[in-house]
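Note to self: keep these together.
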Amino acid sequence: MKFAGKLMTAETQISFGRTQFTATSDGVLFHQDSGKLIISDCHFGKTTHFRRNALPIPEQAMQKDFLRLEAVFNRLKPTSIIFLGDLFHSYENREWNILSEFLYTRIKSQFILILGNHDILHKKSYEAAGFELRTHDTINDICLVHDLADASNESKFNISGHLHPGYKIKGNGRQQILLPCFYVSSSSLIMPAFGSLTGLAIMEKKHKTDSIFCFTSNSIFEVI
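Structure:
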């Protein structure tokens, strides 16, 4: 498998729907012209959810994602953050209160939540934490939804999440590694999951013109 060497940096440019985005090795998209930062499938609250079900997930997993979010915000300085669904994994727990306080004290931005299938908290809980709830949003001629299956037939270009896309890179012999990725086709861009406790759905190119951008903790590159 070959990689685009010039993209072996922490950021790269993705042109989609006649609009330019910055994709980063944090798994986020940034539209500089509007100042909008797009983050998908955080699944905050999953650490506490697992621990309640007797799975020994360390508290550091929760802190890691919070600190990643703060680092992205401080570096890109967005005017608004669009959470592309599945912000919180399950019913309200202590982690929701920690998240609410963290956002209020550390992230000074407008928060927009595109509702996903895991966003089941009461509307008042989201609003009290500063979230504006929407079923979709737009950037230029691009529609932002959680699940591509819910996109309007009238939308020519869509950015979505939900699937947690990943790509399996095979090396010499039987060596292989599965990495999260951005999957870009002519009409859709599927975002990776931001949450560190989410699984990956293995993607394969449906068309030769599709693009896959894999990333590690400090680099992003196109698979060619």
